[in-house]
């Protein structure tokens, strides 16, 4: 397949029309002079067609799941159903203010309540809050709940450590540190938690062990029940990072595995679009011990009416304005309703089948450092490429020239030159085979072409080192740099 | 059942055959029997028309804002979303993309985010903006942690008039590193911050940052904020600003703000019952390495052409892990796109004129409500733009708002913290002039308010 991305020579928006800096904004009576803006905001005045063409051209220089496979490991880039987009734009979803009286928002509260009940079943954890905006936000809120719980038990002074495996997503240690914990890494053995090392590490200091299962190596942590027992015996909590839930929908769930609290990424497992970086929705689900600590308000049903319940004395309070990313809740609910019991299980089955199939095919080209039976994703090592003077990054860039996105690269870090590949259930066998063929062409190409890649995109290889060394972070920076360059 | 998974006959059998297995169950042999579940206990799948009917049935139990004369505001606005904004958000190359880790494949989003960052820089008068945070409240939380990285201390001062939700979010962000959020009292007549209090507390040397909002939690402008930085010296000043207000107000960077945060939802994002929202964050360039969140930078490609990439990533969680400046990964990029498209469609004059017209409408509304027995409107003797606070001298805010609702008026929202045990405070309502509410709706509000207050009088 030959691929050419659009390559518009589209100037930045401020070069489309000169901003009219000299004009002062209209005077508003009563506003003190000192508070007034003296010159208009520097931004161009453009017609609607000019603006629409500008951003349409930009969009044509971007990959999305609608243009190509997007095999980013741990990101679960699945197809985003169009029906969900349509429903989220209904007036009953979009034209609703969070401070409307409850009597006028019964449908919104009911949808939240229903989605929460459904996710309680999916996670096996009975208490659910949709408030967090993203996975990391959910992690952070959950750790604050853990802290509050131990505070109430009088153990907050001693339980100061959060344990996590060395394969953990970067958000896990970052969230733990933000919540005031010291973090301690547990080494992996053959890609899974070394249970002996975990047993040696747990103590009366352990507040929580954060784990994603299947983990970032794509492996199911088969010792999960022993892990749960170990952490609980030490008096700690077990946290489930739901980034990889897709692989186990309807097969097992965090509740059955012994987790006390979990976050889910609706923008992964429940197919809400990732928006080029966000928004997400990082649902929290908790068991009996941590449930009372969830953010307020909770949505409750009394009789046939739904209402917001703020009477939760143990709650950590609010972690954002409003009740969560409702627009995404509507999308996720439509996804779950469509699939239903058997469909959700099929999601897991098919994503695991896809991943094992592609893993088998790509294992012919690069070593797979861990056992071959994987769940939603698998890891390859690009280390042998180095013999040809090529690195994983070159292979990733060369894949872009095939019109497919690259896998996650250089994570997990315990594998040298790693590639992490995830092709969820919405990729058909034809797409999988096309991806394998693209990979085969890419890896078989000459070192010169691999180094020169990409050649068919809007830009050639981007100099990221320069971006960090000489940061130009806004138009203002560009103006200053331009002025400097013009000074003799 | 969905059409999202290919069901071509023989397809899964072929995949299984390639793997040399006969059933997909064999791929789950690593899940111990004791960890498995039977059924989830949820309903069977449905086809698309059934799902649409079911979701619509639920959503129709809502009464959207367009059913009312709405004066709801606060940090979340019900401003009109131009069709062209949604058309750009519906470009699936944008909305179905992931975070632009592969710069070459994501120039469109990276450029849009760079333009977004540049716009927030122009509005705030600062140097650097990030590519978004979750919402205005979490942006305040991140600004608190950011301030602590710039300055020693354990006390962060915020206006007592800040919305209760934001105070609660701030206290959560402060709780990790054991920092305290303390409230600056305000003048009962004007709602202005007590600058003598700030001066005194700053003198105690353990304050590491001060937050002030423009307009404040009462909807009013506090001229004293312009003098705050001279009191603070090298203590960081965080200004939480409404983006539309900044189209007509002095950029906070010009009066010493070190950080300017805000809620960006009013620029082209439907309220959607409170989310997704858009957290805005800008700071000075010398502090950029302490900043949270993704940042897009301009650079060159291998042929020397202008190109864009995520940059300064060593601040971030995927590299720095427990020592990252923030845990944020997923942000609100698509909403940032809405923000810059909205502002570009309006242009600087369009934004300023919109703010001016809302301000005029708010004054009309305030004078219509101010004449009603039992209502003080506006409650504070201070300038305002599109919002102001009304105080009830009899009856409760909840009861008043409920009576208005029955007359098809959403008259604003109560400023009280609804948590049991929280100090309730006076009966105050934040009222917003909205685009959809014309003269007719303003008169409708005044009439409904008169009726509601008369009813309170009868019941008293």
Account of the protein in words:
The complex is a heterodimer of chains A (488) and B (460). By secondary structure, chain A is an alpha/beta fold. Chain A has two domains: 83-338, Type I PLP-dependent aspartate aminotransferase-like (Major domain) (Aspartate Aminotransferase, domain 2, 3-Layer(aba) Sandwich); 357-460, Aspartate Aminotransferase, domain 1, CATH 3.90.1150.10. In chain A, 36% of the residues lie in helices and 12% in strands. Chain A has 15 helices and 14 strands. Chain A has helices at 48-59, 82-88, 91-94, 106-123, 135-152, 171-178, 195-201, 224-233, 254-257, 326-362, 392-400, 429-444, 447-452, 464-469, 475-486, and strands at residues 127-129, 161-165, 182-186, 188-189, 192-193, 206-211, 237-242, 261-264, 284-286, 298-302, 305-309, 377-381, 408-409, 418-422. In chain A, strands 1-9-8-7-6-2-3 form a seven-stranded mixed β-sheet, with helices on both faces. In chain A, strands 12-14-13 form a three-stranded antiparallel β-sheet, with helices on one face. In chain A, a hairpin with an 8-residue loop joins β13 (408-409) and β14. In chain A, α2 (82-88) packs antiparallel against α10, α4 (106-123) runs parallel beside α10 and α10 (326-362) crosses α12. Chain A is globular, with a radius of gyration of 25 Å. The mean pLDDT of chain A is 96. With 460 residues, chain B is of the alpha/beta class. Chain B has two domains: 66-78 and 347-459, Alpha-Beta Complex (Aspartate Aminotransferase, domain 1), CATH 3.90.1150.10; 83-341, Type I PLP-dependent aspartate aminotransferase-like (Major domain) (Aspartate Aminotransferase, domain 2), CATH 3.40.640.10. Chain B contains 13 helices and 15 strands. Chain B has helices at residues 11-19, 48-59, 83-89, 92-95, 107-124, 136-150, 164-175, 195-203, 228-232, 317-320, 333-370, 397-406, 439-459; strands at residues 69-70, 128-129, 155-159, 180-184, 207-214, 237-241, 259-263, 279-283, 296-300, 306-310, 375-376, 387-392, 409-410, 413-414, 428-432. In chain B, the strands form four sheets. A seven-stranded mixed β-sheet of chain B has the order 2-8-7-6-5-3-4, sandwiched between helices. A four-stranded antiparallel β-sheet of chain B has the order 11-12-15-14, with helices on one face. A two-stranded parallel ribbon of chain B has the order 1-13. In chain B, α3 (83-89) runs antiparallel to α11 and α5 (107-124) packs parallel to α11. Chain B starts with 10 loop residues before the first helix and ends with a helix. The mean pLDDT of chain B is 96. At the A-B interface, α1, α2, α3, α4 and α5 of A face α1, α2, α3, α4 and α5 of B.
């Amino acid at each position: 397949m030959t691929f050419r991305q659009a390559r518009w020579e589209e100037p930045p928006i401020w070069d489309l029309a000169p901003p009219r800096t000299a004009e002062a904004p209209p005077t508003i009576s009563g506003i003190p002079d000192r508070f007034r803006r003296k010159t208009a905001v520097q931004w161009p005045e453009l017609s609607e067609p000019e603006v629409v063409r500008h951003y349409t051209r930009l969009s044509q220089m971007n990959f999305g799941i609608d243009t190509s496979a997007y095999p980013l490991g741990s990101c679960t880039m699945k197809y985003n159903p169009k029906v969900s987009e349509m429903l989220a734009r209904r007036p009953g979803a979009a034209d609703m203010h969070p401070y409307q009286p409850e009597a006028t928002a019964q449908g919104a509260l009911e949808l939240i309540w229903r989605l929460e009940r459904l996710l309680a079943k999916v996670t096996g954890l009975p208490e659910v809050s949709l408030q967090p905006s993203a996975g990391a936000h959910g992690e952070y809120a959950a750790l604050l709940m853990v802290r509050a719980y131990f505070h109430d038990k009088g153990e907050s002074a001693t339980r100061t450590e959060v344990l996590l495996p060395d394969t953990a997503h970067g958000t896990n240690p970052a969230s733990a540190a933000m919540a005031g914990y010291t973090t301690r890494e547990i080494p992996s053995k053959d890609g899974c938690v070394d249970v002996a090392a975990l047993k040696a590490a747990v103590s009366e200091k352990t507040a929580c062990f954060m784990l994603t299962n299947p983990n970032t190596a794509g492996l199911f942590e088969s010792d999960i029940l022993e892990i749960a027992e170990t952490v609980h015996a030490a008096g700690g909590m077990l946290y489930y990072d739901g980034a990889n839930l897709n692989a186990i929908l309807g097969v097992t769930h965090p509740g059955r595995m012994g987790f006390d609290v979990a976050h889910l990424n609706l923008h992964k497992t429940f197919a809400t679009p990732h928006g080029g970086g966000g928004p997400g929705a990082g649902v929290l689900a908790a068991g009996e011990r941590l449930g009372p600590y969830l953010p307020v308000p909770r949505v409750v049903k009394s009789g046939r009416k739904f209402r917001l319940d703020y009477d939760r004395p143990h709650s950590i309070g609010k972690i954002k304005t409003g009740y969560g990313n409702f627009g995404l809740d509507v999308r996720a609910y439509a996804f779950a309703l469509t699939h239903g019991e058997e469909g959700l299980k099929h999601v897991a089955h098919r994503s695991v089948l896809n991943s094992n199939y592609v893993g088998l095919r790509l294992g012919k080209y690069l070593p797979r450092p861990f056992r071959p039976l994987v769940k939603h994703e698998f890891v390859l090592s690009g280390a042998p490429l180095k013999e040809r003077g090529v690195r994983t990054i070159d292979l990733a860039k060369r894949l872009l020239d095939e019109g497919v996105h690259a896998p996650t690269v250089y994570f997990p870090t315990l594998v040298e030159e790693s590639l992490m590949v995830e092709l969820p259930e919405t990729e058909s066998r034809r797409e999988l085979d096309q991806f394998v063929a693209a990979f085969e062409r890419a890896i078989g190409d000459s070192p010169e072409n691999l180094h020169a890649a990409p050649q068919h995109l809007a830009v050639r290889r981007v100099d990221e080192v320069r971006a960090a060394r000489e940061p130009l972070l806004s138009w203002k920076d560009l103006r200053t740099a331009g002025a400097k360059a013009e000074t003799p | 059942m969905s059409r999202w998974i290919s069901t071509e006959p023989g397809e899964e059998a072929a995949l299984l055959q390639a793997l040399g297995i006969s059933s997909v169950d064999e791929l789950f042999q690593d899940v111990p029997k004791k960890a498995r579940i039977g059924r989830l206990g949820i309903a069977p799948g449905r086809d698309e028309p059934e799902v649409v009917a079911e979701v619509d049935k639920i959503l129709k139990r809502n009464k959207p804002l367009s059913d009312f004369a709405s004066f709801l505001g606060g940090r979340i606005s019900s401003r009109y979303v131009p069709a062209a904004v949604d058309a750009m958000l519906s470009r699936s190359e944008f909305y179905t993309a992931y975070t632009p880790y592969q710069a070459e494949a994501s120039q469109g989003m990276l450029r849009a985010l760079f333009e977004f960052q540049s716009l927030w820089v122009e509005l705030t008068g600062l140097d650097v903006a990030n590519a978004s945070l979750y919402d205005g409240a979490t942006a305040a939380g991140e600004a608190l942690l950011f301030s602590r990285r710039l300055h020693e201390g354990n006390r962060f001062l915020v206006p007592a008039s800040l919305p209760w939700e934001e105070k609660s979010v701030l206290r959560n962000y402060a709780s990790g590193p054991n920092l305290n959020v303390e409230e600056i009292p305000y003048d009962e007549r004007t709602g202005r911050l007590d600058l003598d209090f700030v001066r005194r507390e700053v003198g105690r040397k353990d304050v590491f940052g001060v937050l002030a909002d423009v307009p404040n939690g009462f909807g009013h402008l506090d001229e004293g904020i312009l003098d705050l930085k001279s009191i603070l010296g090298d203590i960081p000043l965080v200004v939480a600003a409404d983006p539309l207000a900044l189209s007509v107000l002095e950029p906070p960077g010009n009066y010493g703000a070190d950080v300017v945060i805000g809620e960006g939802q009013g620029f082209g994002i439907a309220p959607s019952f409170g989310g997704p929202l858009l957290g805005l964050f800008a700071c000075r360039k010398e502090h950029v390495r302490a900043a949270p969140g993704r940042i897009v930078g301009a650079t060159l490609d291998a042929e020397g052409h202008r190109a864009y990439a995520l940059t300064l990533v060593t601040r971030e969680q995927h590299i720095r892990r427990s020592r990252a400046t923030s845990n944020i990964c997923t942000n609100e990029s698509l909403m940032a796109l809405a923000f810059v498209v909205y502002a570009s469609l309006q242009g600087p004059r369009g934004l300023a004129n919109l703010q001016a017209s809302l301000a005029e409408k708010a004054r009309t509304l305030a004078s219509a409500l101010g004449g009603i027995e039992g209502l003080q409107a506006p409650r504070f003797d201070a300038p305002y733009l599109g919002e102001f606070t009304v105080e009830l001298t009899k009856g409760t805010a909840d009861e008043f708002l409920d009576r208005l609702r029955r007359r098809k008026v959403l008259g604003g929202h109560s400023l009280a913290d609804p948590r049991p045990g929280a100090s309730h405070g006076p009966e105050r309502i934040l009222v917003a002039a909205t685009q959809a509410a014309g003269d007719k709706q303003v008169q409708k509000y005044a009439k409904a308010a008169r009726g509601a207050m008369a009813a309170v009088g009868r019941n008293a």
